[in-house]
Amino acid sequence: MIKKFLMTPGPTQVPPQVLSAMARPVIHHRTSEYSELFARVNENLKYVYQTGNDVLSFASSGTGAMESAVINLCSPGDDVLVAACGKFGERWRDLADAYGLVAEFHEYEYGEAVNPDDINRSLEANPHIKVVFVTHSETSSGVVNDMQAIGAVVEDFDAVLVSDSISGLGSAEIKTDEWMIDVVVAGSQKALMIPPGLAFVSVSDKAWALAEKARSPRFYFDWLKARKGLAQAKPTTAFTPPVSLMAGLDAALGLIREEGLQALFHRHIIMGRATRAAIKGMGLTLFSPDEDRSSSVTAVRVPEGVDEARLRIHIRDWYGVQLAGGQGPVKGRIIRIGHCGYYNYSDIIVAITALEMTLMDLGHPVQLGAGTQAAEKVFAEDIEATGDETV
Amino acid sequence: MIKKFLMTPGPTQVPPQVLSAMARPVIHHRTSEYSELFARVNENLKYVYQTGNDVLSFASSGTGAMESAVINLCSPGDDVLVAACGKFGERWRDLADAYGLVAEFHEYEYGEAVNPDDINRSLEANPHIKVVFVTHSETSSGVVNDMQAIGAVVEDFDAVLVSDSISGLGSAEIKTDEWMIDVVVAGSQKALMIPPGLAFVSVSDKAWALAEKARSPRFYFDWLKARKGLAQAKPTTAFTPPVSLMAGLDAALGLIREEGLQALFHRHIIMGRATRAAIKGMGLTLFSPDEDRSSSVTAVRVPEGVDEARLRIHIRDWYGVQLAGGQGPVKGRIIRIGHCGYYNYSDIIVAITALEMTLMDLGHPVQLGAGTQAAEKVFAEDIEATGDETV
Q1: Which residue in A171, A232, A314, B62 has a CA-CA distance of 20 to 30 Å to B305?
Q2: Is the pTM of this model over 0.90?
């Protein structure tokens, strides 16, 4: 009787309503029944994206949709700017390299945020920069960049702004239109609460103008093909879509609409706040910034004398809690607790409890209950402030 | 109480065992639990592929995996040969065009098969041809090409042979190694009996040698990245895989192993034979060839005076049977009955019955029961010949 708690920043837990929607018999994708589902999904994606722009969907992981942004916006030899503060920011650079772009690369330490002033300086110095690639929620460190400030900078230039919001969309708010984010990339397996296999991009008019001229070779990830399918009276995709994942997404977006965007973001803010309070309460040190924006994933320094791999195996095998480790230069130095998507107070309390007990099991001095107490206080304060039941 | 029968050549019906496997809670993809599942899936894919080659998997539709073959084997300006006898053969040409290849294009009428001698002639005339792209089971027409003969031709040249077996693998036999097919592309939503969203390629040593030199830009679909993941002690994918579809595939491959390859192919041959007998028995004309190789999909000419769209809507709305129409030049002229994957005699009989009754409803002269009788005779003959219960 091992009860499992998936607490990684993707894949994330999937609600039973979504699992059962995915288990329904498969329908054909060139039918009215599917078009109606697809149209509803597109409408609800726009709601989560807070956009009037087209949202395109691809059968792929999030990386596929990132690649689609590179090849649909750029031609070989184009100047682009990549501002990276972690592993997924570096992926923009790798993609730019793979497609022969000339990338100016701003690199920040893992745990730091992108500085919008640096982007401004680069755009002023090089008016040929066509696209700025940034990460909204940097899953590898827990940093959530200030997309509103970055959008306000790029708005004044010809460059198109692309945000990897794969672990951000639906947990750390992004106002696509109001903040002038031309392209927002998202994935299914984070706050959208379905399994991996679907990815999305929203495309602004400014981005479409660039896409119509871009000459990178492309076929499967061609945005123009996808737009043609969307524009039909019975909207469809260029290629066979993952219909069962789409049925799951339809159910998940229904849950999001029911909760409402403001409640959704509030829940994530409170979960992040409670997790950080708990981590500090049990005497550990945060790696991700101690700010409300960090609402998707909380990164924690592994205390001296504790082996990170051993910690994660122990907490999984003894308490059923699956955490993520560090990537790149912070591998072995941090653990990450994901809380984007189908999570609430109960998951946070379980993860913190399991972490306290695991530290004790591994011989690290810890006062049992100190973390959970700190988390509970955050939840209680929230109930008092909002008059609502807890998140 | 509408009972639905999905009889299209992709997506196809999904067994309940697979649907329930997909509805299990999501597991993380960087765990031993997932690696074990992935290793088992890879082993069982090799069994279905009849190969010792690596089989790579991608979160994408089948077209994504086709694109992966083009970009991993070719460099801009390369000479290639495309032999096409339908819509999906034409896709190889579109892909070659998108990536700046110089494609010699053999075009056959829809309903015709590729002639291996034509391939031989082209390869003799142009020794620079690096890759030959063909379609194994041409879903748009029901033609199944003679891959054994084509493999025997290409074997004598330096060119690599790529087969789109998206609707063939697991229904129309392909002996990847014995027939010398260097790259076999497959999709999840056909005879592999799971929903769309996963695609596969097998890669021979001859193909790997080419892939290591190919210079087309690529990232998400890079075979070398995928191979690196496969080669690890705990095999994994380069990017987040669609774990729920993989869990479904694991269950589906378990069913295939239980049935056994020879029984699997026999079942498909008999279903194809019964469907063709029924079509002829009810006085209609086959569009796909009347041969046992055509075991994935049966294409039928729409009789004079019957409107194809009306027929398909009627049979769907009145009898719950979803058929496919024609594509490209045969749009409106044929209907297609899919029977690759989770199908047996019961589905064939239901589809034929519904087709007979639909024709009657639409005022086309038909003798009710003539088609089902012809199909039943095929099943009965098979039972007599094999001593087995019916397929």
Answers
A1: A232
A2: yes
